[in-house]
Amino acid sequence: MLEAEIQAKIFSLYWNEKKSVRRIAEIIGVDRKTVKRVIDRKKVILERQASSRVSMLDPFKEQIKEMLTKDPTMASTTIMHRLRDNGYMGGQSTVRVFVREIKSKSLKVREAFLRLEFAPAECAQVDWGEFGDAFGDGIKIHCFVMVMCFSRMMYLEFTRSERFEDFIRCHENAFNFFEGIPKECWYDNLATAVTDRHGGVVRFNPRFFSYMGHHSIVPHACNPARGNEKGRVENGIKFIRSHFWSGRTFKDFNDLCVQSILWRDQYLNCREHRVTRRIVKNLFDSVEKPALGPINTLKFETDEVLTKVISPDFHFVFETNRYSVPWTLVGLAVTIRINEKTLKVYYHEKYVAGHDRSYLKNKVFTNPKHQDGLLAKKPGAVSQDESRQVALKGLGDGVRQYFVSLRASSRSLRSEMNRLLALSTVYGVEALNVACFEMLKDGIIGIEKLERYLRVENITIKNPEPMKFNREKLNRVIPGATLSSYDELLIKDDSTTNEGESDGN
User: Fold this and answer.
1) Contact 448, 456 (CB under 8 A)
2) Using one digit for the tens of pLDDT, what is the confidence trace for 15-26?
């Protein structure tokens, strides 16, 4: 039974504000039949004393409250499935009523809006939902959602970024899923769609506007803080959180994508929508799909295209990661085509290298074949570099961590390694480790800044060991020049002169 305050609110909305039963149900958040029963009674019924009869749900009520505390959006069906796993044998309606009671206690009267109505194929609403770091690897999970406003047919796609290329690619996938194009697409103030706005004047991203023109779609930017204007897609994201995301586990990102597709096709678009009272897919197929415009068969380029000059270590940097190419391309400009899965490298339009795209940070991806022939040209180059790396790693944790960050940067690795080893000799290993930790704390990479720090700190400079050469003759120490023999001659001359003077007297 609804609380007395909620019953009173229903009476006020119906008799004083002349709201319809459907509208009251939306505002209060209960079923229309419940609203109708309250109105028909024409009086507030106080909550009856609790029955002494034990309910099958009683042992699980605290568990339900805990679930709703962690995720207030969790749907009653999701909660029931989790209770089944824990041994609950009662009915679903009992769970639904209890969940509704819990949620109604924290009910806030929402601002009322007029529902926007759309003709078939008139409009689709688009937005992103963020789902946090789901796999503990520092990569946030995002969900692209497009909803057809008339039928509520929905397309969703999980991604690992909201870059422009992801945005356009998801549009393409959505239109192929719907097998047609709506007349308009409505957006919030997404940076990928809207670059600037002043009042009612909106400036769209030129690349995005070009894409809209490619498919003859009119883009529409919703007014700020007017959630009702794109309520369909916002409700869609909430529905995904409560009915799909809550209570599920995923092995990895691919598993997440597979589960979301199955849920979309087997449940999301196959259910009866609470507003239209029609099966979503049936309404879409019979009414809205025939009204959609044709898809432009000419491919719109969605790959990101970059030009990079290959560094001396035959790698290039993309999103903090380093990827290798054949060493013969060092110093040359290459073209890189990037999509959500791969990076492909071209030189003068010829394919020369490819890598799987990584969404991790500060990693190095080297294909061993890319250094074929380098040893023949520079014998010992690799082994020398390896020995330098071993030497650096043995200097301490600070130097080792600094070297990892150094490898992820665009600086010349070999030169930096040589200078690091030299600094360890001049200033000492302990001082170098302290300096490396301080640089890393401030996010600074660069041997010049490291050396400047060591000088500023006035750390006592150690006398370096003598330089060693491969040829033993060059390692011989030449005795330093001495002037003692000349001093003896001067003393002898002085004594002789003194003796001559004494004889003359």
Assistant:
1) no
2) 777 888 888 887
